[in-house]
Known about the structure:
This protein has 13 helices and nine strands. By secondary structure, it is an alpha+beta fold.
Amino acid sequence: MQTSRYSRYAAGLFITMLLGFGSMVTAEADQKVAPPKAVESVAGVPEVIARVNGTAILMVDLKRAEKVIMSGRPSMDIPPDKLKDFDQQALAQLVSAELLYQAGQKLTVKDLDKKIDDKLAQSRARFSKAEDFVKAIKALEMNENDLRDFTRRDLVISNFIEQTIVPKVTVSEEESRKFYDQNSDKFKRGETVRASHILCGVDAKATAEEKKKAREKAEKLRKELAGGADFATLAKENSTCPSSKQGGDLGYFGKGQMVPPFEKAAFALKPGEISDVVETQFGYHIIKLTEKKGAETVPFTDARPRIEEYLKNQKIQAAVNAWLAETRKNAKIEMLLK
Length: 338
């Protein structure tokens, strides 16, 4: 079971900060998000906005969380008269995260430091340049030590949920079947095709001469196929698409999943047929249709794993919420945000 799989059910904004970390650079550039408010009091002491069993939550924690939420929802516009509500909702989730973290600290997380290192490495890998990674951290008013601490908290919370809540959650076949029967419209699948292609790619900034050469190469390959050449072999040797490793096989896809010129050509073919050269923004394609499936309703046996996962996730969310509601009864929580 993956460590981070259920963490999103627990900590709301806190976990969002971690899971959405890779998108921060782009978001920071694209959004007009108000900068964090001052996070220190006039005395130079960080402003405490809540205490959970004696542990302080600071204004900077709230503003970091809100900044991430706003960056991930470009169309969200909070009216001035709703800003206090937004603050309170965000703070409530930070309190929930702290309660979960405090409970999680009572359990042992095996190889915690290694897991932290691995997760930070995954975060860095999401950026093509090291300076973009640093920029993303700074965009959250954080440094690498802060990020390491947030990652530690994420793993501790995830471990708590997986050890104490997930094992108690089950989904029966009867429940899955009931969901399937009551949501039959969700399991209808349109016409799909399985196709392979050979791509003679061209850069978006390619010159007319470069485009001409790419098309000529595609036309030459099409003639070789007409003469009996093996499609998969030519794809492996010539295609610039990563699918070349699979002989150009793209697997099954439905309408709306490919760019229009490619889709139109693929769906117009019969199984076994090979298209003429098709131009898209990616270059010049030769498409071979392998198989075509008509519209159908996905059988319950095929849909069941996804249904079970969906229902289990809902139950985990409900169980976490129930745990938080019960825990709050005995916790000492001071909400100091004005």
